[in-house]
Every structure is written in structure tokens, then in C-alpha cells.
Amino acid sequence: MYSSLISKIEKAKRYAEEPERISFRSFEVAFRGENGTHAVSLKGDDWNCECEHFHTTGLCAHVMTLQRVFASHLTDNARFTQEHVPAEASRTTEYAGFQRSRCDSGRVAPP
Ligand SMILES: [Zn+2]
Fold this sequence. Notes:
About 45% of the residues lie in helices and about 20% in strands. The protein has helices at about 1-15, 50-55, 60-70, 75-80, 85-90, 95-105; strands at about 25-35, 35-45, 45-50.
């Protein structure tokens, strides 16, 4: 009886050293930011945050923090959320060209 419990504890200790075994399917946290506390949640691969920036762009410092803290517990999709390009900018091809030329230029912007 006791030996079976001991073997479970040993297994738990071993598992605890391999956090990548655990992937979050969903969770919700209260994130105490500098400008207030926000509810941040993950459902599947979809993040949600109450803050203004998330509602505008689909990504914010709170989500990015959780992606760092819980990186080993997140699927690749949940770990690397892309900021949504605002609707106005995505309609013009100019914006995409601008982004590309900035990346390809290889220049370092003056301070
Ligand atoms: Zn946020």
C-alpha cells in the first residue's frame, strides 16, 4: 500500500522536472498590470485580454508576458501570437510594402 504511494510520489517528482509534458488547454488569470488588473484567458490557441491594446490589435503586453512565463506549457500556436494588422492598414498594399522594405533594408536606424 505504502510502496505504491511512494512510487506515485517518485513519478510526480520526475514529471515535475519535465514541464513540457503539461500543455494548457485553457486558463484564466488576473494580471496586475501597471494601469490596472486585467483578466487574461487562453481557450485552445485563442488568447483574450480585457485591455484596450488587445481589443485593438489582438496582442498586448499581458498576453506576451504569459507566453513567456508559460512557454513550455503552450502549443506553438498559442506561444507565437501575431499582432493583428489594423483593418485600415491591411486594406492597402502600401503597408505590406513598407513592412517589407524596412526588413530588407538591413540599415540600422539612426538613434
Ligand atoms: Zn492586455
